[in-house]
Design goal:
Elements lengths: L3 E6 L2 H4 L12 E2 L2 E2 H4 L2 H6 L1 H17 L4 H8 L5 E6 L5 H5 L4 E3 L2 E8 L6 E3 L16 E5 L9 H9 L3 E5 L21 E4 L13 E4 L3 H16 L1
Parallel strand pairs: 1-4, 1-9, 4-5, 9-10, 10-11
Antiparallel strand pairs: 2-3, 6-7, 6-8
Helix pairs in contact: 5-8
The protein binds adenosine-5-diphosphoribose.
């Protein structure tokens, strides 16, 4: 039976596809304070701003394409059982061909009803005040905002406990509960971190290898190495 690889990805995974990370520009995200555009409080205060912010993100994502890092992770599936747990709301893993992707923080190409949280719809277009679900409630981005519960966390934790190898790519590991997932991995399994400005150093975990490269550079080499080890 193939070994299980669990991959935890963050904004750095998609940086080489032209999508900006969150914490590389003094806490500003495309010029906005993240709490103003990514919190229930921000949405209540200025829904137009928040909806337009996500409209821009959706437009930007329609123009973006997976990078060599995303593609390499998809290729890993021919030799391992792979599950990607991503903090990213883009669909670049899926577009690259990965088949098991858990979106911890939601998905940009989905919206949900503000009156019925179970009513989630695929959506690639703009949403404005007045864009409503079939039940007549305002639509909002299907995104886990700061201060909101992370519904897929128990699933992600459970998947992480089953890992034989853990890859962590392009995340500052500053945002909990996602960052805490590392601690669910079985102690001592091989752990690889790919990030040009890594926040872990060898010794933080018993079997950690830090690869200080971008995702598009570092992931294909790492994947080639893992595939060699699998055969
Ligand atoms: N390749 C790989 N990693 C990169 C690259 C790149 N080209 N460029 C930057 N990075 C790294 C940075 O060094 C940093 O460690 O990506 C990481 C990005 O960190 P953050 O911006 O904090 O993103 P992330 O960890 O995904 O943030 C977590 O915070 O704002 C919330 O919900 C949002 O999901 C997000 C969460």
């Amino acid at each position: 039976m193939s070994k299980k690889i669990v991959v935890l990805t963050g904004a750095g995974m998609s940086a080489d596809s032209g999508l900006k990370t969150f914490r590389d520009e003094n806490g500003l995200w495309e010029g906005h304070d993240v709490m103003e555009v990514a919190s229930p409080h921000g949405f209540a205060k200025n829904p137009d701003l928040v909806l337009e912010f996500y409209n821009q993100r959706r437009r930007q994502l329609r123009q973006a394409a997976p990078n060599k890092g995303h593609e390499a992770l998809a290729a890993l599936e021919s030799h391992y059982a792979v599950t990607i747990i991503t903090q990213n709301v883009d669909d670049l893993h899926e577009r690259a061909g990965s088949t098991e992707v858990v979106h911890l923080h939601g998905e940009l190409f989905k919206v949900r009803s503000t009156g019925n949280p179970h009513l989630v719809l695929p959506w690639k277009e703009d949403v404005i005040l007045g864009t409503k679900c079939p039940e007549g409630y305002q639509l909002r981005p299907h995104i886990v905002w700061f201060g909101e519960e992370v519904p897929l966390l128990p699933l992600a934790a459970n998947i992480t406990t089953s890992a034989d190898i853990l890859l962590v790519i392009g995340t500052s590991l500053q945002v909990y509960p996602a960052a805490g997932l590392l601690h669910y991995s079985p102690p001592g399994i091989p752990l690889y971190l790919v990030d040009p400005r890594p926040t872990l150093t060898a010794g933080d975990f018993p079997n950690l290898r830090v690869i200080s490269k971008t995702a598009a550079e570092g992931v294909p080499t790492l994947v080639a190495d893992l595939i060699r080890k699998a055969v």
